[in-house]
């Protein structure tokens, strides 16, 4: 399986606001858009969801999952992991992963070894 980690786009207008948008994958690749979230409160319930789209932005597959208590960082990583397993089972071998978390992007693209 060939995976490329992508893409982060920040809008310069107005300052401190981010613009996140789908970016067409390279020819022959599918695009995985991942997200994780945590409900504020004492129990910190988290969930994740992903969608895979082709180069025409057509839906290929996706999922949503309740995870229980964890951080948004872990929820987003969990979603990426689940979707990689799904695409592997479907024999999809070229995948570009798009995330909206700089921390997740840095974790996945870092050359450092070790646990998170």
From TrEMBL:
GO terms for MF: nucleic acid binding; RNA-DNA hybrid ribonuclease activity
Pfam family, any one: RVT_3
Database matches in Gene3D superfamilies: Ribonuclease H-like superfamily/Ribonuclease H (3.30.420.10)
RNase H type-1 domain mapped to chain residues: 33-112
Domain of life according to the entry: Eukaryota
Record's protein name: Ribonuclease H protein
Organism: Trifolium medium
């Amino acid at each position: 399986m060939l995976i490329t980690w992508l893409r982060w786009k920040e809008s310069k207008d107005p300052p401190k606001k981010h613009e996140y948008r789908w970016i067409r994958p390279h020819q022959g690749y599918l695009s995985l858009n991942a997200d994780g979230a945590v409900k504020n409160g004492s129990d910190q319930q988290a969930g994740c969801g992903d969608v895979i789209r082709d180069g025409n932005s057509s839906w290929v597959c996706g999922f949503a999952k309740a995870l229980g208590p964890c951080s948004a960082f872990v929820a987003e990583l969990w979603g990426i992991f689940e979707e990689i397993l799904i695409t592997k089972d479907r024999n999809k071998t070229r995948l570009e992963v798009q995330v909206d978390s700089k921390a997740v992007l840095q974790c996945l693209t870092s050359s450092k070894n070790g646990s998170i």
